[in-house]
């Protein structure tokens, strides 16, 4: 019986670690459409297993002396998918924005900085945000971060404020 338990634990761990593997195929619904012409776009996708990532991120934040508020927001994350696109185009970005609107995502914030555009879109159910999609576009390079969890608008506001405070601190050090 112990051997069976050990074997099943090892198999489960192998499947979990396998989800860390970087893939060259898209991991988001709009981008895995076989009928859409993505032209010369190249995809790189990563699924982050949260049971492995959360303890590491929480420890790093505590070691850096970050606030307990930020650590509590990290605890609310249930899944993260990251996808980068090389040789993307504006038509693809516009079509993706239409897809998100059709699928009940609401645009929250768009920040333009130098040649980059950062866009936050959320899918809500009542007061709860179940999905947050962060898009970073810089020319033909695109990065999509799909965060699933159970957040409030206040959580997202705290996260954005934290990011701005750290950027100001880093500029003052230079």
What do these coordinates show?
There is one protein chain. With 174 residues, the chain is of the alpha+beta class. The chain has 5 helices and 6 strands, in the order H-E-H-H-E-H-E-E-E-E-H. A hairpin with a 2-residue loop joins strand 4 and strand 5. Helix 2 packs antiparallel against helix 3.
Q: State the share of residues found in helices, binned by percent.
A: 40-55%
The strand count comes to 6
Report mean pLDDT, rounded to a whole number. Answer: 75
What overall geometry do the principal axes of the alpha carbons give?
A: globular
Distance between the termini: 60 Å
Radius of gyration: 18 Å
Measured by DSSP, the beta-strand proportion falls in 25-35%
Q: Please tally the helical runs, counting DSSP H or I stretches of 4 or more residues.
A: 5
| Largest sheet report | 6 strands, antiparallel
Structural class: alpha+beta
Detail the poorly predicted runs: 1-15
H/E element string?
HEHHEHEEEEH
- Which strand order does the major sheet show? 1-2-6-5-4-3
Quick recap of the structure?
The chain is of the alpha+beta class and 174 residues long.
Produce the secondary structure layout:
Elements: H1 2-18, E1 42-48, H2 50-63, H3 68-75, E2 77-86, H4 90-102, E3 106-113, E4 116-125, E5 128-138, E6 141-151, H5 153-173
């Amino acid at each position: 019986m112990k051997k069976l338990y050990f074997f099943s634990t090892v198999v489960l761990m192998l499947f979990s670690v396998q989800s860390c593997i970087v893939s060259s195929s898209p991991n988001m619904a709009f981008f895995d459409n076989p009928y859409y012409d993505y032209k010369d776009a190249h995809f790189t996708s990563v699924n982050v297993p949260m049971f492995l990532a959360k303890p590491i991120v929480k420890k790093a934040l505590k070691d850096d002396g970050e606030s307990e508020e930020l650590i509590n927001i990290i605890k609310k994350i249930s899944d993260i998918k990251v996808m980068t696109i090389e040789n993307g185009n504006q038509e693809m970005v516009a079509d993706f924005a239409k897809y998100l609107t059709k699928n009940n995502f609401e645009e929250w914030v768009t920040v333009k900085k130098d040649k980059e555009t950062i866009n936050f879109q959320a899918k809500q159910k009542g007061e709860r945000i179940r999905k947050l999609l962060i898009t970073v576009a810089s020319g033909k390079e695109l990065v999509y971060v799909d965060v699933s969890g159970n957040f409030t608008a206040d959580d997202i506001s705290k996260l954005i404020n934290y990011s701005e405070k750290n950027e100001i601190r880093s500029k003052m050090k230079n």
